[in-house]
Structures are given as structure tokens and as C-alpha cells.
């Protein structure tokens, strides 16, 4: 297949994906414009809270997309993707902390406030370089990517699969959460990294900066989707699906299965880290609670509800559940966990293919009905001509 035919297939055989991304991009443009240009009190004004909520939802959609790539197409159920998301966020948070300089509470130009409070004498070596934005971006990619590569190499070469792999990924994110909660490791302890002032010289609290971040989240989501779509539509994608369906047969055919799994697992972690890097300046904090195993389980629920193995379904699931969480935790805070558990049960029992699966079933029935009506009309016209 030529490159042109591959690109044509990528754009023409995914109408629902194009529709979802079109909506995402439209919201990523309209919400910031309505926040910045429309005056408060106007019908068209979008509040900063609502716009920031959209940005957070878009970051979660990128994270869900990353998990769907490995789970939906390669059969790797990771319960630790929240760790990669948090690592990317911390990498960006460390850059933002270095930008505070002497504007902190203690006025120390080198050490963040929490280090001064804990009587640290010097900046730890692993904080060096984070005063440079380019270095921070590099670490946003390298930190989760390198962790995923080392962890995946050890796990896949040992042929750890299925529920055992899921358990050790959950143990990984739990261990990281415990580490980042400790003050002695130099990541802010319980409070994490907070009190950011600016990013690239722009006030991080201003509506204009938040608008750019929301638009950036929408653009990155679209780019990540097209890259993932390109992967699953290529020969590599066919190999990944074959590994998901019959790993032992692919080994018998001579494929180095662990190499393919390691590649897609590492790439997925990088996507998750990028999502975390956009998320942290939006919410204004990098907190160790982002490593919580319950967050990684929540990502699985997003993908399951939206539709595993569809990519656009993962985006839908993340947006739907993220909005539902915001609504119910505000209006009915005591009910949210029960609602989330109920959603998981209902999805498992009645929506095994998720929302995207139901959409595809409806489209197939509609196309079949249209084809039947067309054939009936064609037969009727042929009969009239013969008579």
C-alpha cells in the first residue's frame, strides 16, 4: 500500500473519528474565544472554570487514547498509566517551580519554598536543568518513556501477561505514589508542587494563558489520535491485533512479540506523559495523589465505556465520565463512587463493546437497511422496464 493510499484510508474509513475530533477542535477554539473575547455577563461568555474543566477533560481524553492503544489493540491491560501521566506532570511542574525564583514565600532564588522549609541546603541533582523549558519538554517524554521501557522490557521478556501484568503495573504506580508522598525525595511531599507563577514568561493564572493551554490540549489530542490511527491502520497495527488475539500463534510464526509490545507500551506511556504535562499548568499543581491506583482503574473504565479498540470511543468515554464526575461530585458528592461503580457494572453486562460499539451497530443496521431499500427499488424499476 502506497503512502497516499494509506493516508486516504486513514481519513476516509473513520467517519466517527473525524466527527469526534471535529467536535473536540471546535470546542477547543470556541471555549477560549468566548472566555477571552465575550464580556462577563454576556450570553456568549464562557467562565474560566468551565474552560479549565474542558482543558482537563481533553487531557484525560489524551490519556484514555494512550491506554486504548495498548489495551484495545495489543491486549495489554495496564493499571499503571496514571503513573506515566503523573510523571509527565511532575516534569512540567518542576520547570514551573524553577520559574518562581525569588518570588516565593521565602525569597530563595534557587530552592523552591518546600525545600527551604525542610532546610535543604542545595538543589538536588535531578532538579538541574529544569530551569530550561526545552529540557523540561525532553523530560516530559523521557521520564515516562524510560520507565515504561525498563519496566516493559523486564515484564515482557519474562512473558508476564494478563492479570499478572495488570497487578504489577498497579503495584508500580502505588510504589511511586508512596515515594512521591515522602518529603525526603524532594518532590514536595503531600502538597506536591504548587504556587506556579508563569510559563514561558506568561502569567499562568491569566485567562489568555489558560485559553492557549486549552487550545493546545485540543490540538495535541487531534495529533495523538491521528498518530495512533496511523499505527493501528498500518502493518504494525495488524501485528498488534494479531498479538492481542493469539500471542502464542504469533510467536510460533517467528514474531518477536515482546519487541512489539515494548514498542507500543513505551509509546503509549509517552502520550500519557504529554497529557500530564498539559494538565499540570491548567490545574496549577502537581500532586502525588495523581499516582493513586484508583486513577489508573478509572482510565480503564473510560476506555471500556467508550469502546475498547476504537480510539474515538476512548475519547468519548473520557469526556463523558469526566463531565459526569465534575457534575456529581459538585451536586451529589457522596454518590459519585457508587455511580462510577454502577457504570462499570452496566458497561460490563450490557455494553461490552461500549458506546462506540453501539454507534457502529447502528451505522451497520442503517447501511444494511439503505442497501435493502436500494435493491428493492432497483428490482422494482427493472420489473417495470421488462413489463
What string gives the helices and strands in order?
HHHHHHHEEHHHHHHHH
Tally of contiguous helical segments: 15
Question: Which segments are poorly predicted (pLDDT under 50) over 5 or more consecutive residues?
Answer: none
Strand fraction equals: under 5%
Largest sheet: 2 strands, antiparallel
Structural class estimated from helices and strands: mainly alpha
Number of strands: 2
User: Mean pLDDT across all residues, rounded?
Assistant: 90
Shape assignment: globular
What is the helix content? over 70%
Q: What would you note in describing this structure?
A:
By secondary structure, the protein is mainly α. α3 (48-74) packs across α12. The protein has 15 helices and two strands. 72% of the residues lie in helices and 1% in strands. It is globular, with a radius of gyration of 23 Å. The model has no long low-confidence stretch (mean pLDDT 90). The longest helix is centred in the last third of the chain and has 33 residues, at 354-386. Strands 1-2 form a two-stranded antiparallel ribbon. A hairpin with a 2-residue loop joins β1 (198-199) and β2 (202-203). The chain has one domain.
Element layout with pairings:
Blueprint: H1 3-12, H2 15-36, H3 48-74, H4 81-98, H5 113-117, H6 133-157, H7 162-181, E1 198-199, E2 202-203, H8 207-232, H9 235-245, H10 247-252, H11 257-283, H12 293-306, H13 312-331, H14 336-350, H15 354-386
Antiparallel strand pairs: 1-2
Helix pairs in contact: 2-3, 2-8, 2-13, 3-8, 3-11, 3-12, 3-13, 4-6, 4-11, 6-11, 8-11, 12-13, 12-15, 13-15
Amino acid at each position: 500500500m502506497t503512502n497516499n493510499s494509506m493516508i486516504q484510508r486513514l481519513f476516509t474509513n473513520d467517519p466517527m473519528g473525524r466527527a469526534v475530533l471535529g467536535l473536540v477542535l471546535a470546542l477547543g477554539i470556541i471555549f477560549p474565544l468566548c472566555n477571552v473575547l465575550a464580556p462577563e455577563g454576556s450570553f456568549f461568555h464562557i467562565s474560566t472554570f468551565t474552560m479549565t474543566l474542558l482543558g482537563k477533560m481533553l487531557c484525560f481524553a489524551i490519556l484514555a487514547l494512550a491506554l486504548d492503544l495498548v489495551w484495545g489493540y495489543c491486549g495489554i491491560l495496564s493499571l499503571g498509566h496514571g503513573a506515566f501521566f503523573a510523571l509527565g506532570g511532575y516534569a512540567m511542574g518542576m520547570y514551573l517551580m524553577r520559574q518562581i525564583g525569588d518570588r516565593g514565600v521565602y525569597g530563595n532564588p534557587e530552592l523552591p519554598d518546600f525545600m527551604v522549609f525542610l532546610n535543604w541546603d542545595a538543589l538536588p541533582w535531578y532538579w538541574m536543568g529544569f530551569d530550561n523549558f526545552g529540557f523540561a519538554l525532553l523530560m516530559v517524554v523521557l521520564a515516562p518513556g524510560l520507565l515504561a521501557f525498563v519496566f516493559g522490557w523486564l515484564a515482557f521478556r519474562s512473558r508476564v501477561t494478563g492479570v499478572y501484568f495488570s497487578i504489577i503495573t498497579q503495584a508500580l504506580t502505588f510504589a511511586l505514589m508512596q515515594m512521591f508522598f515522602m518529603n525526603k525525595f524532594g518532590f514536595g511531599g503531600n502538597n506536591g508542587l504548587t504556587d506556579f507563577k508563569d510559563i514561558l514568561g506568561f502569567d499562568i493564572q491569566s485567562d489568555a494563558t489558560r485559553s492557549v493551554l486549552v487550545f493546545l490540549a485540543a490540538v495535541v489530542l487531534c495529533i495523538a489520535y491521528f498518530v495512533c490511527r496511523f499505527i493501528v491502520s498500518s502493518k504494525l497495527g495488524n501485528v498488534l491485533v494479531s498479538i492481542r488475539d493469539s500471542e502464542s500463534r504469533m510467536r510460533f510464526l517467528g514474531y518477536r512479540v515482546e519487541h512489539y509490545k515494548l514498542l507500543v507500551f513505551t509509546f503509549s506511556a509517552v502520550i500519557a506523559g504529554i497529557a500530564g504535562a498539559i494538565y499540570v499548568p491548567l490545574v496549577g499543581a502537581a500532586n502525588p495523589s495523581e499516582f493513586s491506583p484508583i486513577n489508573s482503574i478509572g482510565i480503564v473504565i473510560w476506555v471500556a465505556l467508550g469502546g475498547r479498540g476504537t480510539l474515538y470511543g476512548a475519547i468519548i468515554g473520557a469526556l463523558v465520565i469526566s463531565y459526569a464526575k465534575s457534575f456529581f461530585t459538585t451536586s451529589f458528592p457522596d454518590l459519585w463512587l457508587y455511580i462510577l461503580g454502577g457504570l462499570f457494572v452496566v458497561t460490563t453486562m450490557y455494553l461490552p463493546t461500549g458506546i462506540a460499539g453501539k454507534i457502529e451497530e447502528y451505522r451497520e443496521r442503517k447501511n444494511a437497511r439503505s442497501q435493502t431499500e436500494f435493491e428493492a427499488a432497483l428490482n422494482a424499476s427493472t420489473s417495470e422496464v421488462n413489463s
